[in-house]
Each structure stands twice: as C-alpha cells, then as structure tokens.
Amino acid sequence: MTDELERTATAYRAAVAEETEAKAALAAAKQRRDDARKKVEDTRGPLAAAIVKEARQGRKQADIARISGYNRENVRRICRAAGIEPTD
Q: Can you tell which superkingdom this protein's organism belongs to (predicted)?
C-alpha cells in the first residue's frame, strides 16, 4: 500500500510542478503579447504620419502601400482622413 501512496504522491507533485511551470510560461507569454501590442500602438501613429507626409510629397499610394506593409485601402483611408485623395 505504501508503494502506491508514494507513486501517486510523486505523480501528483510532478503534475503540480508542471502546472506551475505552465502558468509561469503563460504569464510570460501574456507579458510579451502586451509588450508587442504596446509597440504596435506606439508605432502606428508615426507610420500614419509618414504615410501622409509621403503622399503630400507626391508618392503614389501604391508605392506607399508596398513600402509600409499596409494594403492600398488602408493607405487610402489614412490619406483621406488627412484630406488627401488618391493619386494612383
């Protein structure tokens, strides 16, 4: 009977340790996600400003889309919000 108790107690402790490690990994992943989200938020505005600046200087929206990684519709939306109509 003692062997079964020791075996099951050992298995339980291992499971608890595994769960604890998984919780820590999840917390770290959530923190990385939050950090990445903040970087996206922090860089979105400057990217939009650069898009508007390039459009005002005459760069075609198709070129801006290619360089920025945004699709053409998002570039058009950003430009229109700044009062710039498509040039391509």
A: Bacteria
Domain residues for the domain of 31 are 2-81
Helices (H) and strands (E) in the chain, counts: 3, 0
Report yes or no on 86 lying in a domain: no
Q: How many CA atoms lie within 13 A of 20 on its CB side?
A: 6
**Is there a domain that residue 46 lies in?**
yes
Asked whether residue 53 is domain-assigned, the answer is: yes
DSSP secondary structure code for residue 69 in this structure: S
Entry field: residues in the chain: 88
Sign of the C-alpha dihedral computed for residues 10, 16, 21 and 22 taken in this order:
positive
Block residue for tokens 């769960």? 19
**Looking at this protein, which amino acid is placed at residue 83?**
G
pTM of the predicted structure, to 2 decimals: 0.74
Separation CA 52–CA 69 (nearest Å): 15
pLDDT at 73 over 80: yes
